[in-house]
Fold each of these.
Amino acid sequence: MSIDLLKNYIAGRFVPSASREVLDVENPATGETIARVPLSTPDEVDRAVAAANEAFPAWSATPVARRCELLFKLADRIRSETENLARLVTAENGKSLPDSRAEVKRALENTEVACGMPVLQQGDKLVGAAADIDGEVLRLPLGAFGMIAPFNFPMMVPFWFFPYALATGNTYVMKPSEQVPLSMGRVAELIDEVGFPPGVFNLVHGARTAAERMTEHPGLKGISFVGTSRVGKIVAAKCVETGKRFQALGSAKNHLVAMPDAKLEPMIRNMVTSCYGCAGQRCMASSAIVAVGEANYREVCERFVETSKEVIVADPLDPAVAGEAMVMGPVISAKAKQFILDMIRAGIDEGATLALDGRDREKGTGTSCAKHPPGRSGKRCLSPFPEQGHFLGPTVFTDVKPGMTIHRTEIFGPVVVILRADSLDEAIRIVNEHEYGNGASIYTQNGHYARRFKLETLCGMIGVNVGIPAPVAPLPFGGMKTSLLADVKAQGRAVIDFYTDKKIITERYWAEEE
Ligand code: NAD
């Protein structure tokens, strides 16, 4: 089977990169190479930026309804290709098919919200701001923008940004993650097919070198970055230095607070879905549970560990697991798996209790067998998960203290830490003292507890009995503290502000002489 070397999409043409540096794109579930991605050179970024700037005058002068007509067409193509796109996301990222379908759906939703730009981009007018003077706010596009994307949502995260940029009249240079370049490569083909003018949307494959050229390039008006806070800080500093707008959404450690009055069984199922979906590699995945009260802590630990064992660890494209509710695929790479293994070792060394060990595929701990349906007992047989690929089973630490390495660090894998707190005050303090503040949820039936949690928790996205409080497309998406490195969120109106300049007009006309 021949393996494609991916092309860049610049000025309306798919062009091979001249770079000699090429990476294999791997299906993390099988270890198979499914494509090869060039690490584009700074020159190639320059060409994409030049194309975007050349396209800007005509595109920004194109009526907004026409710009949205093309986005409607793109939405139609995505809708009719949902299954193909979802399979592509799963093949390159390893998440389950239901997760990939949900990802494509959210990308679609963002495109549809951006189609509302004829209303959303309207400015304001204040008649009579002073004597005979009117004030007016115009929302104008600025030029060419860029995006640097992470590996964990190959398709959804880019759609938090570029449909809004295009709808508002800006042009674009997209750099997907070098680990998962296929989904956005297919989106570039759809963009080409629906007839966006050349240069309005450009795609450059690559890694650090290409990204760095984007952040320093004087031809880009702004950068949207999503990835680790470590790289986000570098991007932010470079954008400040070069006078660009920037938004940078970073790392996370999302807490779930279990109050003693919560509905135990639905809460535990909801927590399991939140912690192990996408093998714990969602930016909104929970990886720390805080149980309030000693008896509640013991019950939560026991039920969470038992329910974690029901997760099926398998290649998500294996037909045997089609239709299963809780399928967990591999983590993204051998490097990511090694980091997670190092973190598990750190947890053991620091004295936390390893209540469920997902490292050993032979023991089958935490792994249900996908091939043999539950017997009469209703229990699955346990069996090893696939040998190929970067699999790990659900792993749970109990007796975890705030500040331990496994609590401080974003592990980004199926490793969950459970802490105890004596009160809601202490639980909120644990969440608030953490470096990251992306999301947090409380499980309770008590409105007073929930209200305090909503108001006092220093996180950007809060759930009440919802384990993944990821906002829908019309609402802003973004955290607090080190999880968000500029006060500019993704999606909806927040990103429309980022992509438009609010120009303020103050105007007066003198009366003609009678
Ligand atoms: P990463 O920081 O390793 O890479 C992100 C992007 O930055 C990639 O495209 C990469 O090529 C590029 N890059 C690498 N070095 C660079 C440099 N020096 N300058 C500029 N760009 C550079 O992140 P990742 O591992 O791909 O993604 C996972 C991370 O993303 C996790 O921390 C996760 O929490 C975070 N994330 C956050 C959100 C959010 O909403 N806060 C959403 C999704 C993912």
Amino acid sequence: MTPPSRLLVRDLDQLVTHRGAGAPLRGPALSDVELIGDAFALCEDGRVAAVGPMRELPAIPGDLEELDGRGRCAIPGLVDCHTHAAFAGDRVAEFSLRAAGAGYEELHAAGGGILATVRATRAAGAKGLADAVHRHRGWMLRAGTTTFEAKSGYGLDRDTELASLRAIRDAGGSPTRLGAHAVPPEFDDADAYLDFALAEVLPDAAKLAEAADVFVERGAFDAQRARRYLAACRDAGLALRLHGDQFSEAGAIPLAIELGARSVDHLEATTEAGVRALAGSDVVGVLLPASALFLGRPMPPARALVDAGAAVALATDFNPGSAFCESLPLVCALACTQLKLSPPEALGACTVNAAHVLGRADRKGRIAQGYDADFTLLDVPDWRYVAYHLGGDLGIEPIIAGRRALT
Ligand code: NIG
Ligand code: FE
């Protein structure tokens, strides 16, 4: 019999994790962290067995791997709950055009944007797509992300959508079917495309995906079509997510609340009524400041949302067009400098609350007994460097299920 795997991370300068369990963190609870100085975390069989100050470290008989935490801080493994990692190719030419003044929506309307990535992703084939997701997963891991969600949505045909979901699942991610991202060129009307997506793809997609997502926006899908798509996905057993209020308020928040969605994501265009509605609901608002920065758009009303009592999460939105950024530490820096969240609020938003969006909050997002032993170790003197060192080298070492994930 193989001995149980045990890892002791010891002599950490700091270990930080949010208090409370159960529901997403709202209001003051989003700032409520437990900070342990001179700390240890003991992992057994992939779970956290004990955590505390070194002076309380019990004698541990038997085989044990030790990891020296001196000069380092441990935060919970970061959870990226919104990425579009299943894509091939790039949009660097479009990026250059945008730098010269072209608009993102204008490029999309001219058949570029999302549809350019659809062409590249279809051409990559299942193997090319799996390789791309694997590479992107490595980038995320090196940035400290230990749990990730990724969406399909650059296939839009049956084979590429299913290959995207398989590639995400095989890379260890949480797959979301973004079947309503854009109307692909072989359909000239959104209703005919949805007929196909629901009848021909959804039955098999629902066996691979955990959630469904839709882009509710002018030039994409209106609220009525989104309702039809999401209701069918819910009936097929999927959790619901929405891209909403990115450029305009097109009814995504009321629809998310009506359908009991897990989240509504973006919210750069959300006004006061939307903030109030979200705060009174169980829907998590997922904020994507790297996307707002990358497109030169207004930032989402994060402070107002948190102060009103809404549950918010932070994510990268990693994709080749609107947010070519896989770094949650950079997102935390944007949260503190642009969204006016504090470092504890930013951390809670991309750990505990992000885990809720993925339906994994019972196992992910905290360093606490019984949780999965996923940590992000930082080679820094204070854990808040995760947001403070803007785009800097944090000496990140991810631990997943009690094992060093980069060695
Ligand atoms: O979340 N807004 C819709 N979808 C993505 C962007 C996709 C792309 O530009 O390729 C987003 O920003
Ligand atoms: Fe997105």
